Amino acid sequence: MVELKTDTSIDAMYEAGQVVARALTAARQAAAVGVSLLELDEVAHAVLREAGATSPFLGYRPSFAPTPFPAVLCVSVNDAIVHGIPGRYRLRDGDLVSIDFGAELGGWVGDSALSFVVGTPRAADLRLIETAERALAAGIEAAVVGNRIGDIAHAIGTVCRGAGYGIPDGFGGHGIGRRMHEDPGVPNEGRPGRGMRLRHGMVLAIEPMVVAGGTDDFHAAPDGWTLKTNDGSRAAHAEHTVAITDSGPRILTAR
């Protein structure tokens, strides 16, 4: 069931989204050679505490997970696509890092992600990140009243496939509101003109993921959470929480 949010509720979701934006910005600024992933998680946690917000990630346990998620920030490095658990690993020069974060404030949730390179970047990594961001922009551009979910999926998939990248099979965006994951699902590839019609008040987390090696296959790491590319190639992830409105898409987690 899809809940249509009121304009007042969308404004409240914007406040949650801005906590997310601040936490991602702070974590990105703190990421440097020698910094541990646990330290990045603490930076994000401090933003939550300052805002009086809570984490929808911490303690989250979907059906596939062997244990509850133990952190407020997902940190996925190099061949990790999403859901990386922050640990003692210290960032190295040239690491490609994807960070994903959510916040709950006043009963509403925001969710966003970004990718970047620590230290000296490889041209191939910059191209991968740019493609993820471009795919996100294309998906948001298609998120207008009267379009369908398939139009968003097609826009994302066209950018990713056109660049020669893989798209992790079965993973994509989702509805969001009172809970982090709500209906409808938002695939990262699909046929235009298909699926649920977009209406004013729908709020979606749109999140392309791209794999440099061009394949869609992945596996779960021993921790049961981190998804890694099968071929060892690098991955990038970009995400925003977006409200569908009569005046166009509104990015609630804009940084």
TrEMBL record:
Top class in the EC scheme: hydrolase
Residues bound to a divalent metal cation 2: 111, 174, 207, 239
The protein's required cofactors: Co(2+); Zn(2+); Mn(2+); Fe(2+)
GO molecular function annotation: initiator methionyl aminopeptidase activity
Gene3D superfamilies in alphabetical order: Creatinase/methionine aminopeptidase superfamily
A Pfam family recorded for this sequence: Peptidase_M24
Function: Removes the N-terminal methionine from nascent proteins. The N-terminal methionine is often cleaved when the second residue in the primary sequence is small and uncharged (Met-Ala-, Cys, Gly, Pro, Ser, Thr, or Val). Requires deformylation of the N(alpha)-formylated initiator methionine before it can be hydrolyzed.
Assembly and binders: Monomer.
Name the record gives this protein: Methionine aminopeptidase
Organism, scientific name: Streptomyces iakyrus
The organism's taxonomic lineage, starting at the top: Bacteria, Bacillati, Actinomycetota, Actinomycetes, Kitasatosporales
